Amino acid sequence: MIAINASTLLESLSRIDPAPFFGLSLFPYLAFLWWSWRSGRMPKLALWGFALTLLFVLVTIAAALLAEATTGRQLADVDALHGGAEAFLTLSNVLVLLGFSRRANEQEQ
User: Fold this and answer.
1) CA–CA separation, 16 vs 10, rounded Å?
2) Domain housing 44
């Protein structure tokens, strides 16, 4: 059995570029959206909320590029752009919440 030092493992993991994983994560999310739409079991409002998460991702990428180009800083350091991008995540989360909340209320009645 080979003993792996935890700090060595963490150091080697820290050298992995996470960017490809973010891109690859789009495929399972699109599969989730497709299955949810096809199944007809997802509340429509919640489905719209999940779909708007993709808009959040696009807005965040655009805001990050804008922050870097105009200020030379990361998006997290430019409050106005960061807050504006996060507003899209809040909107999508509210739609998901309202969609499932309405479904739960309909089932109670």
Assistant:
1) 10
2) 19-108
The reply to whether 9 falls in a domain is: no
Other Cβ atoms less than 10 A from the Cβ of 48: the count is 16
Given phi > 0 = left and psi -120 to 50 = alpha, else beta, which region is 87? Answer: alpha
The alpha carbon torsion through 82, 85, 86, 89 (nearest 10 deg) reads: -160
Residues recorded for the chain: 109
- Can you tell me which residue has the tokens 């504006």? 84
pTM, two decimal places: 0.77
What is the tally of structural domains in the chain? 1
Mean pLDDT of 3-8: 75
Domain presence at residue 3: no
